[in-house]
Amino acid sequence: MSAAEGLLVGKRILVTGATGGIGTEICRKLHRDGARLAIHYGSSDEQAQALVAQGGDRGSVALQADLTSEGGPDGLWDAATDALGGIDVLVNNAGLWIYSRLEPEEEWLAGWDANMDLNLRQAAWLTRRAVLDFRKQGGGAIISMASRSSLRGDDGEHLAYGVAKAGLQNLMKGVARAFAHEGVLAYSIAPAMVATRMIAGHMPPERLAALPMREVVPPEDVAETVAFLASGRARHMTGATLDIMGADYVR
């Protein structure tokens, strides 16, 4: 048995983007430690239901929502709080590495709009709802997935992605500073490239060999960090960004 098992018993946690590579592992670790989950997905209903089943009979639920649609984040928050009887932890994990090429202009603008919608605006809306509820119930935690790009910037075809993730990271800092006295905690996690299906098999050997650990970040490392923060064992770490980069970027 894991030493962490049971530390999240009684915790009600909403995980967005739960059926992706990182989100799936987050759900597994949170279930392992005893949490009840609202498992958000966009289109992968079968995978979401499989994650619910992994939680056994504790009452986790799968909830579909388009977070970029008008009312999408609000609808998800309402459905999650209704299903679980409230939320104690929000995990803003939904996101995507979206192009924002400099030209043509139409593609540049479309890339910026898409990045702001998916990688910042939806998480900010859910964060707003979480803060409002957490202040009423005496506390809660928000854990948001930033990125190495939010710290160092991204490449020329993904400038908007880095800006959106930096905005999300800054949002967590502001929430932490403004509402810590009311028990509202906020953290960012900044991974480098994670070994998801999107990355697996596409990493050039020379790039892999240049990494200090000779491997990309395993999703388990990210998930264990989420579980640790959700447990409340590091309250005074609120406002911090935790780097998970295998020393590929050190600050």
Q: State the distance separating the first and last CA atoms.
A: 35 Å
Give the number of helices: 8
Unreliable stretches? none
What count of structural domains?
1
Radius of gyration: 17 Å
Mean pLDDT: 91
Helix coverage percent: 40-55%
- Give the tally of β-strands: 7
* Relative strand content: 5-15%
CATH top level is Alpha Beta
Q: Quick one: biggest sheet?
A: 7 strands, parallel
So what's the overall shape?
globular
CATH architecture: 3-Layer(aba) Sandwich
| CATH topology-level name | Rossmann fold
Descriptive terms for the model:
alpha/beta, 251 residues
Please give a quick description of this structure:
With 251 residues, the protein is of the alpha/beta class. The chain contains 8 helices and 7 strands; from the N terminus they run E-H-E-H-E-H-E-H-E-H-H-E-H-H-E.
Structural description of this entry:
It is a single chain. The longest helix is centred in the middle third of the chain and has 33 residues, at 105-137. This protein has 8 helices and 7 strands; from the N terminus they run βαβαβαβαβααβααβ. The radius of gyration is 17 Å and the shape is globular. Strand 4 (89-92), helix 4 and strand 5 form a beta-alpha-beta unit. Strands 3-2-1-4-5-6-7 form a 7-stranded parallel beta sheet, sandwiched between helices. It has helices at 21-32, 45-54, 72-84, 105-137, 149-152, 159-179, 205-210, 219-230, and strands at 12-15, 36-41, 61-64, 89-92, 140-145, 184-191, 241-244. It has 251 residues and is an alpha/beta fold. The protein has a single domain (12-194, 220-242), classed as NAD(P)-binding Rossmann-like Domain (Rossmann fold), CATH 3.40.50.720.
